[in-house]
Amino acid sequence: MAYKNYLPKFKHESAVLILDQGYIIHEACDAVGVGQTAIRRWVTQLQEERAGNTSQKTRALTAEHQEIQALREEIKRLKREKEMLKKASALLISETFNGSS
């Protein structure tokens, strides 16, 4: 059986059925065509995001937490670039001093 990958918006809307629209698990599963394990996981994730917790392991369901994840990735990228620039600068300075003697 192949693993099916769902978009965050679909997961969000599926979890909202239970959290905000009064569906019970099996009704929501029937309505969106997914299994109980998946929908329970999405409900838990949405509850966590609503509580202000953003997981680094899964793609966020809400736009706010998707932005937080994107910003965290940008920070990581900028830190890597900064480290590379530090090393390149140190190498250039080293070559300048060694070459001018």
Automatic annotation (TrEMBL):
It holds the Pfam family HTH_Tnp_1. Keywords: Coiled coil. Residues 61-95 form a coiled coil. The keyword Coiled coil applies. It comes from the Bacteria. Belongs to the transposase 8 family. This is IS3 family transposase. It comes from Sessilibacter corallicola.
